[in-house]
């Protein structure tokens, strides 16, 4: 027996019912969800719900973000927290929620939607609403090399942060997706200890997410460095000169560093994380863009 399902956007007073659906499977953090409107990335109309007899049985939300594409900064939807109650599945609920969310943001002039998935089932679901796979996260182990490099990786300080917006803009004109929203700052005083900057003499020419050893990454982790206008092999050499032991390097399929890392003898293994893209209106042409897993 099919249930009568009501679809609408979030309204005040919905949080308890939404969290009753999402918390048991750890889809969201309660504190973050209850404070979701504190920034400007989420709006009530950007959260779609499915209800049966006032019980929330389906949920999806979209965060606003801007990326460089087609030679300009354009707004995109970041899809997240897509979930449907077990007893309501296979009735097209998730598909309809996402279609309604897409329609809302398309009327506001958004260029498309991006999300990441890690299961074949999720890939098939998103393909039904127009998503296509456009890259996949890769990982490799990069060994140290004590050979000298004219470029030096150093800890990030407050003054260094001023250089990041320009680096992002130049990087974003060749790599996708790269955040260009000034209201959504990726590196700030509270997390800058997890980043390093690349210097040539006294000039900052790039930066990278540079994580120390942890339970998840025992060797530490370096993500594709944001270094525009430089030979990738020079950047790889600079990283090898800066690390005392082997590090994990996170890259993206068809990214700027994939082939240079392979040329250095690194084996890049695909992870389960697949990045998918849905264009709103005219298909987005990614010809000439390197892929990057920005999150």
- The number of distinct structural domains comes to 2
Q: Strand-and-helix sequence, N→C?
A: EHHEEEHEHEEHEEEEHEHEE
Helix count equals 7
Rounded mean pLDDT is 92
Gross geometry? elongated
Terminal-residue CA separation: 41 Å
Give the structural class. alpha+beta
Q: What is the CATH third-level topology name of the largest domain?
A: Aminopeptidase
> Which strand order do you get reading across the main beta sheet?
1-2-3-4-5-13-6-12-11-10-9-7
Q: Write down how many β-strands occur, each being a DSSP E stretch of 2 or more residues.
A: 14
Largest sheet: 12 strands, mixed
Q: Which ranges are low-confidence, i.e. pLDDT below 50, for 5 or more consecutive residues?
A: none
Helix content: 10-25%
Compute the CA-based radius of gyration. 21 Å
Portion in strands:
25-35%
Q: Quick one: CATH class of the largest domain?
A: Alpha Beta
The assigned CATH architecture of the largest domain is 3-Layer(aba) Sandwich
Summarize the helices and strands and which ones pair or pack.
Elements: E1 6-9, H1 15-22, H2 30-34, E2 47-52, E3 55-69, E4 72-84, H3 93-107, E5 112-117, H4 120-128, E6 132-142, E7 151-155, H5 164-172, E8 175-176, E9 195-200, E10 203-211, E11 221-223, H6 232-242, E12 247-252, H7 258-263, E13 269-279, E14 290-291
Parallel strand pairs: 4-5, 8-14, 11-12
Antiparallel strand pairs: 1-2, 2-3, 3-4, 5-13, 6-12, 6-13, 7-9, 9-10, 10-11
């Amino acid at each position: 027996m099919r249930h009568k399902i009501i679809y609408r956007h979030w309204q005040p007073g919905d949080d308890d019912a939404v969290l009753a659906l999402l918390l048991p499977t750890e889809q969201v953090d309660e504190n973050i969800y209850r404070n979701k409107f504190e920034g400007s990335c989420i709006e009530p109309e950007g959260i779609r719900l499915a209800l049966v007899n006032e019980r929330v049985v389906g949920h999806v939300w979209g965060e606003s973000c801007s990326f460089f594409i087609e030679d300009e900064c354009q707004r995109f939807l970041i899809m997240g927290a897509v979930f449907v109650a077990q007893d309501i599945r296979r009735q097209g609920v998730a598909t309809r929620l996402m279609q309604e969310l897409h329609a809302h943001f398309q009327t506001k002039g958004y260029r498309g939607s991006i999300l990441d998935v890690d299961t074949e089932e999720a890939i098939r679901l998103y393909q039904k609403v127009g998503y296509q796979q456009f890259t996949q996260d890769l990982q490799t182990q990069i060994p140290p090399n004590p050979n000298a490099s004219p470029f030096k990786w150093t800890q990030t300080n407050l003054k260094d942060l001023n250089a990041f917006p320009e680096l992002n803009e130049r990087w974003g004109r060749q790599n996708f997706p790269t955040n260009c929203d000034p209201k959504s700052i990726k590196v700030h005083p509270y997390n800058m200890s997890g980043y390093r900057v690349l210097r040539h003499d006294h000039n900052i020419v790039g930066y990278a997410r540079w994580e120390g050893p942890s339970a998840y990454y025992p060797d530490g982790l370096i993500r594709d460095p944001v270094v525009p206008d430089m030979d990738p092999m020079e950047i790889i050499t600079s990283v090898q000169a800066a690390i005392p032991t082997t590090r994990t390097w996170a890259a993206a399929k068809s990214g700027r560093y994939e082939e240079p890392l392979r040329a250095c003898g690194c084996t890049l293994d695909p992870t389960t994380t697949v990045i998918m893209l849905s264009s709103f209106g005219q298909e987005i042409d990614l010809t000439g863009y390197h892929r990057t897993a920005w999150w």
